[in-house]
Amino acid sequence: MVKERLQKVIAHAGVASRRAAEGLILAGKVKVNGQVVTELGTKVDGNDEVMVNGEPVEQEQHEYYLLDKPRGVISSAHDDKGRKTVVDILKNEGVQTRVYPVGRLDYDTTGLLVMTNDGELANRLMHPRFEVDKVYIAKVKGLVSNDEMRLLREGVKIDGKKSQPARTKLLEANQRQKTSVVKLTIHEGHYHQVKKMMEAVGHPVLKLHRESYGPLTLAGLNPGQFRKLKVDEVRALRKLY
Length: 241
Hints:
Elements: E1 4-5, H1 6-12, H2 18-26, E2 30-32, E3 35-36, E4 43-44, E5 50-52, E6 55-56, E7 64-69, H3 86-92, E8 100-101, E9 110-116, H4 119-126, E10 134-141, H5 146-154, E11 157-158, E12 161-162, E13 167-174, E14 179-186, H6 193-200, E15 205-213, E16 216-217, E17 226-228, H7 231-239
Parallel strand pairs: 9-15
Antiparallel strand pairs: 1-4, 2-3, 2-5, 5-6, 7-9, 7-17, 8-9, 10-14, 10-15, 11-12, 13-14, 15-16
């Protein structure tokens, strides 16, 4: 069973904010399995009894969802401009657990997004060290040449740094519309990663869709639909790291 930091467990249970939870721990107000704990690095799991000011804390169970994110939705829990978020989609269908997106897809980007309250899994999946494959389908301006595809496979310079090599495949070249459809497999997840890579070879992105994430695909889902991950799918994600 995965262990999480004590202050995070307290915060997720809605008892106090993360910072306030740290204050409660340092003040000796928190017990784990009947013992006062004052170390902020303490970790607990679902088998541990946590009490704050003598009241038991109900630990939040981990949940995992797969969402086909539609265009025009924010990959965030909240939006200052009042726009619809991916969290709103789940809440509107009765999901009460506070889950968050693993990484982000741009406002105008569609496709596969994992949603969970398992912070450890989320952080590890997003870390480039674990090289989790993400497959994107990009419709771009212009006709992409073989030389430009080779540059993408070698890595291109974006934001002053060279990107990791991508696996690429040209799916379509529309001579009349002067557009191309390219499949890219990457494991980095920097801000606007695919858009910047395509711009670096002279082909701005018109549409972008994430087709898969590690072993997960969108089979059976339409835009705006979601489902719980199966136990074996969660296990497969954990095997990635």
